[in-house]
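> agent: user asked for a holo structure of the chain below bound to magnesium ion. Plan: (1) validate sequence alphabet, (2) canonicalize SMILES, (3) run complex prediction with ligand conditioning, (4) return tokens. Step 1... ok. Step 2... ok. Step 3 dispatched.
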Amino acid sequence: MDNKIIAFAGKGGVGKTSLSALTVKLLVEKFKDKKILAIDADPAVGLSTALGVNVTHTVNDVRLQFIDELKKPDRPSTIEILNEAHYELSDIMIDCGDFAFLAIGRPESAGCYCSINSFLKDIISELVSNFDYVVIDGEAGIEQVNRRVMEKVTDLILISDGSMKGLNVARSIDQVAKNLNMCNKSACIINRVSNPDVIEKIKADGLNIVGYIYEDQSIEMTDVEGKSLLSLDNKATAIEQLEKALKVAEVI
Ligand SMILES: Nc1ncnc2c1ncn2[C@@H]1O[C@H](COP(=O)(O)OP(=O)(O)OP(=O)(O)O)[C@@H](O)[C@H]1O
Ligand SMILES: [Mg+2]
């Protein structure tokens, strides 16, 4: 199946989690017959709160269990452990009705568990292939998504504010992703624009800018009140602007 794997990346605090959550909301409402998976790849697990999901187990829990099993002297065969890991991973995927949710959890502790990470990635890839749209909320960069979730995403969405620093971070993530072939294509959305006059001054050369999202108090309020962004009014400016940007990026 030709599915879309959409990963959000960008400097800290620019709105990756909020816009990932609103993308899930748009997809769920727009494509009722499509299968949608949201992946929280940030150890701080913000996407679950933004989507109102209660996470009890993460991929990292399965990973640690897997490492323990492999250390046991009378351990089951590797194939049995792999089957078990496959079962456990499908089990921790939360069915939220309109979409499914998977939390990756904390990154690996000291020690090289590359082979285990790669087994888990294979299982995640297989699970992901059952979905039409996969939305990944990452940490700042794309490397950790590549190392812990997927080798390659179809659409990398870089989020930045209008600041020089935010744009530089977006540019360097874009370069790494392209040089290491971690995405098919990338697009950049400028978030939290407070003054439309600023737009023409934003130095975004080199980035494929697909849209601007204004500072929207309804997002801030939903966050402060600890509510799910799924409850945001569809007339909110940010939602309309995000939808427009994702259309320009040919994501939806
Ligand atoms: N367009 C917007 N208008 C108003 N507030 C916004 C907007 N986008 C995001 N915010 C607010 O900005 C803050 C940071 O957003 P968010 O947590 O989505 O960023 P992040 O990039 O995921 O941060 P982190 O790097 O810490 O994971 C939140 O309080 C959120 O409510
Ligand atoms: Mg976040």
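> agent: step 4 complete. Summary for user: Residues 16-17, 42, 46, 137 surround magnesium ion (ligand 2) (CB under 6 Å). The chain has one domain: 4-248.
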